[in-house]
Amino acid sequence: xxxxxxxxxxxxxxxxxxxxxxxxxxxxxxxxxxxxxxxxxxxxxxxxxxxxxxxxxxxxxxxxxxxxxxxxxxxxxxxxxxxxxxxxxxxxxxxxxxxxxxxxxxxxxxxxxxxxxxxxxxxxxxxxxxxxxxxxxxxxxxxxxxxxxxxxxxxx
Amino acid sequence: xxxxxxxxxxxxxxxxxxxxxxxxxxxxxxxxxxxxxxxxxxxxxxxxxxxxxxxxxxxxxxxxxxxxxxxxxxxxxxxxxxxxxxxxxxxxxxxxxxxxxxxxxxxxxxxxxxxxxxxxxxxxxxxxxxxxxxxxxxxxxxxxxxxxxxxxxxxxxxxxxxxxxxxxxxxxxxxxxxxxxxxxxxxxxxxxxxxxxxxxxxxxxxxxxxxxxxxxxxxxxxxxxxxxxxxxxxxxxxxxxxxxxxxxxxxxxxxxxxxxxxxxxxxxxxxxxxxxxxxxxxxxxxxxxxxxxxxxxxxxxxxxxxxxxxxxxxxxxxxxxxxxxxxxxxxxxxxxxxxx
Lengths: 156, 340
Prior knowledge:
The structure holds two protein chains of two kinds. By secondary structure, chain A is mainly α. Chain A has helices at about 5-135, 140-155. In chain A, α1 packs across α2 (about 140-155). The model of chain A has no long low-confidence stretch (mean pLDDT about 90). Chain B has twelve helices and three strands.
């Protein structure tokens, strides 16, 4: 129970152990613990971020799908419209072509008629003269009556 | 081992409370003290070899064990010893952060050292009081106190080191403010300076002394109770209720330490078998009690139970005392850092 040198011995020992702990033990352990804490916090953060990213990506994908569907519907609509348009156009074209062909045919027919008429005209005079010659029993002065008959034919 | 008469019981207790002292005796010169009187005659220039060696040993154990953990510290999943160390470090760190608000890198390691070191020193209290002293007595070491914290030199030494730090940081942080704190509180008038100085100085000095003496008192009282309970073994050894006659037949008046080791080994074996699941707990208790009764009679049986009970309670005391010493140190240093 005597107070003696042990007191100072203990003080020195104490100071040494505190120094040792402060130098080699505490900072190492506390740094490792803090680093681990940071690592865990970062990991949790990353997980959160990944979750958020996933959600965003999913939203984006849904949006894109919706957009694509809309686009597809638009394209189909347009195609349908275009198809009916083409059909209409074809119809019109066909009608026009038909009309044209009809007109051409009519013109040709007219032409044929006219030609037939010309031919008829050309031959009618001769025929009429031949008929008249037969009726009259003698030759008709071709030169004298030609003008008369031509005149007649022109009236046809 | 002490006999049954009061004088030798007192001797036994005093023997247990005597440190192994090395110092300069005025008549015999440098050497170990061979009695309490010789130790007292050595005065201040002597050293308690047992206290110093045990405390340095335990402090080194603390440093090495924690250094091992620090070497292995990594940022992955902690396992085993590292996990345990990290739990302690986190606990200390939390306690320090709660009560210390200044900025000082030294306080947390200081708190860790104080807590673990004092805990280890107190833990020596749980070893049977006679075990190591009797073993060392066989090698010729006369006195041995294995619990350093029952030595006021040790506890006051630590408290004084804390006190020096308090003074140092008070001056470093507050400078003249510390002087003002000592002279102008609690009465803020120049005429009261002597009164203030007296009161504040007493208050300041009370801190390290209460710090050191609290730990010392608690541990000393705990050790004392262990020794007192141990005297029951001694009494039982001489007058064993069941086998006192057998003792006298075998060993005469003085029971051999070997006999106690045999009983100790038997009880340990029984407990070990129980831990391995070979025998039931009920049988373990009965067998242990039987061995104790055979070894020392009913006194020893009662003593054994009381030792066990007090040891269980003492686990609480040693942890609490280590914690209180640490927290108070941190609080005192925090006060030294607070600038008004």
